[in-house]
Specification:
YacF-like; 2 domains; 8 helices
């Protein structure tokens, strides 16, 4: 099954973008080749760009505290394991403390590294990191893989508190929803959302054998899915067949 996720607000959209970048970084850093490590470095710069939003850090801290307060409300409930509750609350506390202790925005410490910032300013230019533009960077790419990997891990460490916080928040958000089987009739599905609940994320699973691509739209009142089929020339055309979907609404 292919999983598609659709955020209902800008905050979750930013979290998902950062999670995507952190996953890519986690795959690229352990590799060996200079090209992989070049893209690991440009991914670091992308994280810094996304995390440059002034209120991102405060949003993450507020969400961590909100989740902690919600979990503490379950204390004394006989259906809830106190040990499991303590473990999750401890993780929330650890993420909150680590992120709160970092000065400024995520990756702020990296902005003080003039060499990295010279690469960052050239990386946005097509072909801007050639050896004649950045000979010092070219020399770094010729160092052994262990040296490059150590440098990348050291630079990425400054972003670790943000990465761990977002990973935990998104995992808890995803766990809040229960999947339901629905049917897209004639390639269309629409559902009114329950009043009084504020959903933040839609998760949609679809069988890849159907060869259909969902176009999702939604707000706090309604969610709509239109199934499309990609033609040989790359254009998307509406798929008119009935198709089963698995949908999860996460609040």
């Amino acid at each position: 099954m292919i999983l598609y996720e659709y955020p209902f607000n800008e905050r979750i959209r930013t979290y998902l973008r950062l999670e995507h970048l952190f996953r890519r970084l986690g795959q690229l850093v352990p590799r060996e080749t200079p090209l992989d490590h070049h893209y690991a470095l440009t991914t670091l710069f992308e994280v810094m760009d996304v995390a440059a939003r002034a209120d991102l850090k405060s949003d993450v801290l507020k969400d961590l505290e909100k989740q902690k307060q919600a979990l503490n409300g379950y204390r004394g409930n006989p259906a809830i394991s106190e040990a499991a509750l303590d473990e999750v609350v401890a993780r929330l506390d650890a993420c909150f403390s680590a992120l709160n202790q970092q000065p400024g925005k995520a990756g702020h410490a990296l902005t003080e590294n003039e060499w990295l910032m010279s690469i960052r300013s050239r990386a946005v230019i097509p072909g801007g990191t050639c050896e004649f533009d950045l000979p010092a960077y070219y020399a770094w790419q010729h160092k052994d893989a262990d040296t490059r990997r150590h440098d990348l891990q050291q630079w990425a460490t400054t972003l670790a508190p943000l990465a761990e916080s977002i990973h935990l928040l998104l995992r808890m958000l995803r766990d809040s929803g229960a999947p339901q089987k629905v049917m897209a009739v004639g390639g269309q599905f629409q559902q009114n959302l329950p009043q009084g609940r504020s959903f933040q994320l839609l998760r949609l699973r679809i069988d890849p054998a159907l060869d259909l691509i969902p176009e999702i739209s939604g707000n706090r009142l309604i969610v709509s899915v239109r199934l499309m089929r990609q033609e040989a020339d790359g254009r998307l055309q509406a798929g008119g067949d009935d198709a089963p979907l698995e949908m999860t609404l996460c609040a």
